[in-house]
Amino acid sequence: MQQSTKIRRLVSLFSRLPGVGEKTAQRYVLHLLTSDPEVARDLGRELGGLHDELRPCARCGNIAEVVPTEEPTVCDICKDPRRDTRLLCVVGRIHDLLAIERTGAMRGRYFVLGRLLSPLEGIGPEELPVPRLVARIADEGVTEVIVATPPSVDGEATALLLKRELAATGVTMTRIASGVPHGGDLEYADPITMGRALSGRQSL
């Protein structure tokens, strides 16, 4: 079917999103084109300011809203005085942090590695922000680190690396318990399963 250049460009852009194929991208574009124009305008404004208004939290790596009067940029979780600063949960990705937060079982704070140890992908120990993690443990008086990397080959390798690298800090290290399927992503675990895995964590 002959399409306008504008539609082809939009379909191509939507297709770059994870899990979005060409047909789904085309449905998105046609829906926006035939629905209330304000929806497309609002979406465009929000997307246009995405990188200006959001950036990684300077402390944990979570997504944080930029406040012009505050420097550095810190997320709401790190700002929350009700959080237990002695308890730090280490996750591989922001998706995993959000999955744990949905359970309501985590009373401490987080540290996002941003990636997992993966020799096959060329990600070695030097690619992980372990020195920054060690510094945060010392600065905030952390007494327990929960390693919440996924139960996959890369997740287990990352957990073992953290166990070795953090041994000198003297913190208690625990690993989230079973309940999350092996080889699966924390992102797709339901809140009840994720909550049980967190509350049933074990010594690492």
From TrEMBL:
GO terms for molecular function: DNA binding; zinc ion binding. Keywords: DNA damage, DNA recombination, DNA repair, Metal-binding, Zinc, Zinc-finger. Gene3D superfamilies: 3.40.1360.10, 6.10.250.240, RecR Domain 1 (1.10.8.420). PROSITE patterns: TOPRIM. One of its GO terms (biological process) is DNA recombination. InterPro entries: DNA_Rcmb_RecR (IPR000093), Rcmb_RecR (IPR023627), TOPRIM_dom (IPR006171), TOPRIM_RecR (IPR034137). Residues 86-181 form the Toprim domain. It holds the Pfam family RecR_HhH. It comes from the Bacteria. May play a role in DNA repair. It seems to be involved in an RecBC-independent recombinational process of DNA repair. It may act with RecF and RecO. Belongs to the RecR family. HAMAP family: RecR. This is Recombination protein RecR. It comes from Labilithrix luteola. The gene is recR.
